[in-house]
Write a structure and sequence with these properties.
Order of helices and strands: EEHEEE
Number of strands: 5
Distance between the termini: 28 Å
Length: about 70
């Protein structure tokens, strides 16, 4: 059985990139990922076959009023 995966388009001061979420990280952070405001993410940076940057996400937290709210 295949695990669900989610590819999220993100942007910051440096530009646009995609974050790939799957497995336990996706289940744990799905609510944070649906948040429309600023989000702090952690993961491993990779380059895909086309040379585009992809982050494999493993942690996410909402940023509210300058503070980070981990869920």
């Amino acid at each position: 059985q295949e695990e669900p995966m989610l590819l999220v388009d993100m942007d910051d001061e440096a530009g646009n990139y995609q974050v790939l979420w799957s497995g336990a990280a996706l289940r744990q952070h799905q609510a944070v990922l649906s948040h429309r405001g600023p989000v702090l993410i952690r993961g491993r940076v990779r380059t895909d076959r086309q040379g585009c940057i992809v982050v494999v996400g493993n942690d996410a937290a909402r940023v509210e009023g300058g503070a980070t709210a981990y869920e």
